[in-house]
Amino acid sequence: MSGHSKWSKIKRKKGANDQKKGVLFTKLGKNISVAAKNGKDPEMNPGLRTAIDQARAASMPKENIEKAVLKGAGELPGVVYEEVLFECYAAGGIAMIIECVTDNTNRTVAEVRSTLTRAGSTLGSSGSVLYMFEQKGVVRVAKDDMGAKTMDDLEMISIDNGAEDIQSEDEGITLVTGRGNLNSLVSALEEAGIGISFAGLEYVTNNKIEVTESDAQKVEELIEQLEELDDVNSVFTNLK
Q1: What angle, rounded to 10 degrees, do the helices at 46-57 and 18-36 form?
Q2: Taking every annotated instance into account, which residue ranges of this chain make up the domain TACO1/YebC-like N-terminal (predicted)?
Q3: In this predicted model, what pLDDT tens digit does every residue of 113-131 receive, in sequence order?
Q4: Which of 77, 99, 177, 203 could form a disulfide with 234 if both were Cys (CB 3.0 to 4.6 A apart)?
Q5: Taking a C-beta distance cutoff of 8 angstroms, is the pair 80, 104 a contact?
């Protein structure tokens, strides 16, 4: 799924054109506000730090970022966002978790259901897919952000600081750790001078499956359609 890897999503955020920046800024602001609920200090909250870094990379105005942080921390009045999960099966029996950030659950349900229906999928009941996944701490390091460190250095630092899995890809390295260990892993990497492209919680599965090329294409198209919805933050699947 190279077209919809988490790396390509990072690149799309950085390279959004002016026409799409309004929608992107709204999504980034929501992510910042939700992350700030766990603490408004980005030095102590890697999820917030990543959300702010992504907003800066997309040229989101500083004032907008600061307001989003204060709203999430409850220090400014405004819309209250909440995280909502949807579960479904896509083409080829691929399990899918759709993570949304919304101020109107009814609207979000309607939009997600409509998108799934057009793709021949339906919303599943709570727990129908989630049991296949586990929420983990995930860190992504671009290969050109490793400074003077080698891959061996990165692996040693990561393992010493709780990394459970290390995946080397064309764009960079993905590290997976326990959700409670994310902060310490991020701190260790930063202290070593290694740049971080993303740090946060994601739904990870070890039970990935292969499907036909046709079904894989349908899944990719559905992910793209879902990610175009304002309230959809991330989509996770067990597609190999």
Answers
A1: 170
A2: 5-75
A3: 999 999 999 999 999 999 9
A4: 99
A5: no
Report the half-sphere exposure of 18 (CA within 13 A, side-chain side).
0
Q: Which amino acid is at 197?
A: S
Cα–Cα distances (Å) from 133 to 48, 97, 223, in that order, read 23, 9, 17
CA distances to 78, 83, 195 from 189, rounded to whole Å, are: 35, 28, 8
Q: Which residues of 139-175 are buried (b: 16+ CB within 10 A; e: fewer)?
A: bbbbeebbeebeeeebbebbeebbbeeeeeeebbbbb
Domains and CATH numbers, the chain: 2-72 (1.10.10.200), 82-131+206-237 (3.30.70.980), 134-204 (3.30.70.980)
* Start-end of H helices in 119-212: 151-160, 182-191
- Cβ neighbours of residue 63 under 8 Å, at least 6 residues apart? none
- In angstroms, the CA 14 to CA 29 distance is 15
pTM for this structure? 0.85
Radius of gyration of the chain (CA): 18
How many other CB atoms sit within 10 Å of the CB of residue 198?
A: 23
CA dist 72 and 82 (Å) reads 10
